[in-house]
Amino acid sequence: MPEPTSTVAAPVVAPSQRTTEPAPITPGAAPTSRPRRSGTRYVLRLSALIYLTFLLVIPVGLILWRTFEDGFGPYWTAMTSPSALHALRVTVIVALWSVALNTVFGVGAAVLLVRHRFPGRRLFNALIDLPMAVSPVVVGLALILIYGRFAPAGSLLETVGIRVIFSLPGMVQATVFITLPLVVRAVAPVLEEMGVEQEQAARTLGAGPWQTFRRITLPGIRWALGYGIVLCLARALGEYGAVAVVSGRLVDQTQTMTLFVEERFQNFDQPAAFAAATTLALIAIISLLLTKLLRPKDSD
Amino acid sequence: MTQLSPATAARPDTASDPAASGSPIQFRGDAGKRRAPTVLGGGTAMIYLSLIVLIPLAAVVWRSAEKGPQGFLDAVTTPDAWAALKLTIVASVIVALINLALGTLIAWVLVRDQFPGKSIVDMLIDLPFALPTIVAGLVLLALYGPDSPLGADLAYKQVGVVVALLFVTLPFVVRTVQPVLLELDRDMEQAAASLGAGSFVIFRRIILPNLVPAMVSGTALAFTRSIAEFGSTVLISGNLPFKTQVAAVYIFGQIESDNTTGAAAVATVLLAVALVVLVLLDLLQRWGARRA
Q1: Is A132 in contact with B1 (Cβ distance < 8 A)?
Q2: What φ, ψ does residue B279 adopt, rounded to 5°?
Q3: Which end of chain A is more exposed for a tag (fewer CB within 10 A), N or C?
Q4: Residue of A6, A25, A141 with shortest CB distance to B60
Q5: Domain B68-291 adopts which CATH fold?
Q6: Residue A165's Cα: distance from chain center in Å?
Q7: CA of A70, closest CA in chain B: separation in Å?
């Protein structure tokens, strides 16, 4: 495509100016022929890389190095302490509940948004993104105002023996709030692109709505759904602010991994804080790799 | 996030969707069957959304207004609350502007430059989204804390807050500008070059106007994320009132000391600012879409 342009342009421009022209077509090829352009290019590249190095690479690398500088032993000891294991269990329970709830809601909401027309659809669409603009601490505050011991819903539930704040239900709810948009936003565009032809064909051939969904829709969105679930899981495992408010940060009771990191650090137990932080960082890196693996499949 | 709406808005006129075409006579039997699950599903989804998001947020706004407008103003303008809000807004504006410049630069380098290891750098950009915020804070404190190997102690300083916010907002501008830059037609640039435009003129006159919408929306998102940020600033800021305490940390402190009304007032301000920015962004995008 660029070729015809350059042949047309060739007689018009002077040779000296033409040298700058092919640059965008073959980036990186023979940089010596364009000293001025490649100069700015190196400056740009270098400043971007330096910024990323000092903001991202060195800090994260430093934590990994600090954790493992005395070998794997201290890491293992810190991570297998009863408090750390308990925190890990609480984290996993909260994350799995949140992911399960938001997967069901996410797929349902995506189908609703893409396949159906109903009054208030625009508003519904906008509201789904709302959690992204809300501070995690405000999420926690909101739940305390509703489900706190002196709040109407909270005292009502307390009389039936259900405690929301300072216990798992509240933590799950806070995490669900934070991760709400992720599955919807991963699934909806793929559903949109897929179109309705196959689903309609299935319906014409006598498939029920559930059968159509299970046989046609679900296989069509499975990569996007996987992508959304990984994003949601990673976010749920790493949630700190909302859970910090709602859980009451009770050590060995409602303490999650992120709360464990903070509590250990404040109590000058750096090895444990670093070990837990490294574990969370490794989970983040793995989920990042997984999302990279899942994402390109959408366009197929 | 918002790019969904134009695409979906274009769909209703495709007659292939019986629910959309809505001809009650022709599809009576079928429409009845289809509408029931829509109503049921829509109802369930709306109830879920209300229970999880709307009612709790309404409770925050409700609580903030409990003592009337004067009570709200008093709660927001206590010296420490006001200082926290001011720091949050100023730091977020600085962070948004740095992101605007460096995010665009990084996106440019990732799209137009070629160098070994580029795909790894590209992947690193998403790390701040994946990393728990408290880990981000700890990680920054390890390099820029009291025992910094660089000798740069930013802990308990306002610069430290800015660095923490820069860390967590890094992906926004990069990830909004990158796809636009990737899709950009090179023909115009080549035409400009063939007419004798230098690389700076090409960038300013040809490339930049195409990038501005993406740059603005990325910056706005970085700003809203910044004012809401909590986890990453907790450790590095040291939580000093009047100095390094951001609004989210102030709210946290007020909740801990059982002043939920004061917390709700500041929370409402944060919600309002975020809402205003997002609505402005939406209007701007629609205005831009109409012009194009």
Answers
A1: yes
A2: -65, -45
A3: C
A4: A141
A5: MetI-like fold (1.10.3720)
A6: 25
A7: 17
> Which residue does chain B place closest to A238, by CA atoms?
B132
Asked if B5 lies within 8 A of A125 by C-beta distance, the reply is: yes
Put simply, the answer to whether A60 touches B139 (Cβ < 8 Å) is yes
Burial class for B41, CB neighbours closer than 10 Å (0-12, 13-18, 19+): middle
Rg of chain B, C-alpha, whole Å: 24
Give the pLDDT confidence score for residue B15 in this predicted structure.
Answer: 36
The complex's ipTM works out to 0.83
The confidence score (pLDDT) of residue B135 equals 95
- Over the Cα atoms of chain A, what is R_g? 26
Residues 52-81 of B with CB under 8 A from A: 52-57, 59-60, 62-63
Q: How many Å apart are CA A292 and CA A296, to the nearest integer?
A: 7
Chain A residue with the nearest C-alpha to that of B119: A292
What's the fold here for domain A82-299?
MetI-like fold (1.10.3720)
- The contacts of residue A99 (CB under 8 Å, 6+ apart) are A179, A229, A232, A233, A236
d(CA A148, CA B264): 14
Per-residue pLDDT in tens (0 to 9) along chain B, 292 residues: 333 333 333 333 333 343 433 333 333 344 444 556 677 777 888 888 988 899 999 999 999 998 899 999 999 999 999 999 999 999 999 999 999 999 999 999 999 999 999 999 999 999 999 999 999 999 999 899 888 888 888 889 999 999 999 999 999 999 999 999 999 888 888 898 899 888 888 888 889 998 999 999 999 999 999 999 999 999 888 888 899 999 999 999 999 999 999 999 999 999 999 999 999 998 988 888 887 6
Nearest to A124 among B46, B167, B193 (CB): B46
The shortest CB-CB distance from A27 to any of B17, B19, B112 is to B112
Contact: A44, B231; criterion CB under 8 Å = no
8 A C-beta contact, residue A167 and residue A254: yes
Q: Tell me the residues of chain B between 114 and 133 that have a Cβ less than 8 Å away from chain A.
A: 114-115, 121, 123-128, 130-133
Q: pTM, whole model, 2 decimals? A: 0.84
Q: How far is A247 from chain B (nearest CA, A)?
A: 12
Domains of chain A by residue range: 36-69, 82-299
Closest residue of chain B to A64, computed from CA coordinates: B139
pLDDT for the residue A297: 53
Residues of B with CB below 8 A from A135's CB? 227-230, 247-248, 251, 267, 270
Condensed to tens digits (0 to 9), the pLDDT of residues A154-206 reads 888 888 888 888 999 999 999 999 999 999 999 999 999 888 899 999 989 99
Q: Does B135 touch chain A if contact means CB atoms closer than 8 Å?
A: yes
Out of B4, B52, B198, closest to residue A177 by CB: B52
pLDDT at res. A121:
85
